[in-house]
């Protein structure tokens, strides 16, 4: 078996999955690939200090089509961390309230 046959072994044969992969690749190719400057990151950090606005911007940056890949990945990771912190605080609040009863 040569290298070419080895490579084709990993290509999905399911048409639906192959279409999903093509859409993912096209989406990545359409996103801007420029480097985000230090001043851009400082502006991002300033926006993250403003309550409620920070969550709105995180959603826009995480799922927007015109957001650079690095900022999109950062925003998705930030949303995951916020979700974990929210669940943690909710469990603490629940434990505190239930201790009074």
Tell me the series of helices and strands, N- to C-terminal: HHHHH
Query: What share of residues are in beta strands?
Result: under 5%
Low-pLDDT stretches = none
Q: Give the total of domains.
A: 2
Determine the mean pLDDT: 82
The helicity comes to over 70%
Topology:
Blueprint: H1 3-8, H2 15-30, H3 38-49, H4 53-63, H5 69-99
Helix pairs in contact: 4-5
Structure description:
This protein is mainly alpha-helical. It has two domains: 30 residues, no CATH class; 68 residues, no CATH class. Helix content is 75%, strand content 0%. The chain is built from five helices and no strands. Helix 4 packs across helix 5. It is flat, with a radius of gyration of 21 Å. 3% of the residues are buried.
